Amino acid sequence: MMESHNPYWEQAFSQPFFDNTTKRDVTTTVGQGAYLICRVRNLGDRAVSWIRKRDLHILTVGLQTYTNDQRFQSLHSDGSDEWTLKIGSPQLRDSGTYECQVSTEPKISLSFHLSVVVSKAAILGNPELFLKSGSDINLTCQVVATPDPPSFIYWYRGPNVVNYSQRGGISVVTDKQTRTSTLLIARAQPEDSGNYTCSPSSSDPASVLVHVLNGEHPAAMQHGNSSSGATPPAAAEALLLVVCHLVWSLAHGLVHGLARGRSPATVSLR
């Protein structure tokens, strides 16, 4: 006579175990909710707890929260094997290791690592830009230190979104996968001057001050923009050496003349 198998009977006496297919290294940005998903098979009547490793603080047991920090919450649906620790509005200090623990004897646990990073935008080039009237404004913004591509990247001039309908020659090309956005304003005029800001979703913005000038301007030479009126660094250095030599010669002749008893008025350069 062959033995019959009773799935329910076997399940009742089997031990809980973790499903290791879930993601255990989670990265999120400051302020964006984080979710650590722990999947436990054959849980039975045992309880699942979440522990913060750095101080061994019990955050949740089952669906109950055991911390005054209400940003921590346990999520679970009836009949599901998943027990999720939700961390609302995470901060840098929340980075670290968390343990999903099951109340077996002895206890079993699975570690998860959370990294909370500051996502920010960066506009390539100098923070201040000088251009001649009629030149193109070409600004490229890149989003750095972000785990996911931004859902949008907006460009502002001052407090207002760049208005495409205000004039022609304005275009924005955004590539979410490379996390970059380029703003091009063709044939810029002085009225296009202003503070331009790249503002991605879930990231700190970045700004650049743009000056569109009619003709030459001394400030342009101080910010790395080439112009016909700018003195090349090598020429400036040579001029400085000539001036220094002239001053030295004058002082040397003056001292030499005084040493011979001649009045300063009669001292000549050698």
Automatic annotation (TrEMBL):
Q: Name one Pfam family in it.
A: V-set
Q: Which SMART domains match?
A: IG (SM00409), IGc2 (SM00408), IGv (SM00406)
Q: Which GO terms describe its biological process?
A: synapse organization
Database matches in SUPFAM superfamilies: Immunoglobulin
List residues of the Ig-like domain.
Answer: 16-103, 106-209
Give a Gene Ontology cellular component term annotated to this protein. Answer: neuron projection membrane
Q: What is this protein called?
A: Zwei Ig domain protein zig-8
